Amino acid sequence: DAGVIQSPRHEVTEMGQEVTLRCKPISGHDYLFWYRQTMMRGLELLIYFNNNVPIDDSGMPEDRFSAKMPNASFSTLKIQPSEPRDSAVYFCASSPGQSISGANVLTFGAGSRLTVL
Amino acid sequence: EDKVVQSPLSLVVHEGDTVTLNCSYEVTNFRSLLWYKQEKKAPTFLFMLTSSGIEKKSGRLSSILDKKELFSILNITATQTGDSAVYLCAVVPMNTGFQKLVFGTGTRLLVSP
Predict the structure, then answer these.
(1) Cβ of B112 under 8 Å from any chain A Cβ?
(2) How far apart are the C-alpha atoms of B8 and A55, rounded to whole Å?
(3) Mind listing the pLDDT tens digit for each residue in A47-84?
(4) B34 to chain A: closest CA residue
């Protein structure tokens, strides 16, 4: 299994530009998560999907952020327009669902490092 | 608001030392606590703890949970340079569904040769 695959690994863009981050979860995993990591705030959950349906997007910072999951093997996180404060590492993670102990163990992708100038 | 606090923020030790990393939490309806190790890229799973007082162990790493005092510790014995990483603690609040992990900001460990 190739694990969770994210692209691009690095993105440098100018303020106001549209940014699209992509994620391919592990095959067979029903849950997909988008996290953002910064030094100040650590890892924050932005949104998660179950069987391609968005379940909780309460962590999405504002309307400039949107996420889609058109099928079980692909998701996107879009920022339009981007701002310097969006600079962070964005992680995608997937999980198979509820484990015996009642909690998910997430497998993370390598992350997309976004820099907005 | 659910909260996870890790200490220390960073730590430098010599190879062979033993370290203890701390994680305290405030969460409504606690379900479980997870430890992750993050090197240069993705966080990788170490342990999940759900019951108080039961130690989880994997090689030189071990962890224990105290649900009464609301904290967990991660111990690393005979540290090696490969243990250098950020160690993340996360809790799963039951009332938000099993999927939402609340992470601390991590402890950055540097093991010098």
Answers:
(1) no
(2) 34
(3) 999 999 999 998 998 899 999 999 999 999 999 999 99
(4) A105
